[in-house]
Amino acid sequence: MSKAHIEQRAEYIEASKLFAESNARQTAVIENMTVQIDKHRETVAVAFILCGIGWGIAITMIAQVLS
Length: 67
Fold this sequence. Notes:
This protein is mainly alpha-helical. The protein has one domain. Helix content is 94%, strand content 0%. It has helices spanning 3-39, 41-66. The longest helix is centred in the first third of the chain and has 37 residues, at 3-39. The chain is elongated.
């Protein structure tokens, strides 16, 4: 193996390590987000229901005003 080839492989190995570290950090962030979503799932469901009720009331009021 030539010196240039060995240096190229070393650079490739270093880049692979950096990519693996970045991937591990991203995976940890995604796992943390998943935990947070699971903790707040019921709150989000209630918020969506209340939003739906609010939109229903608003549309009904607009329909009454326009008719």
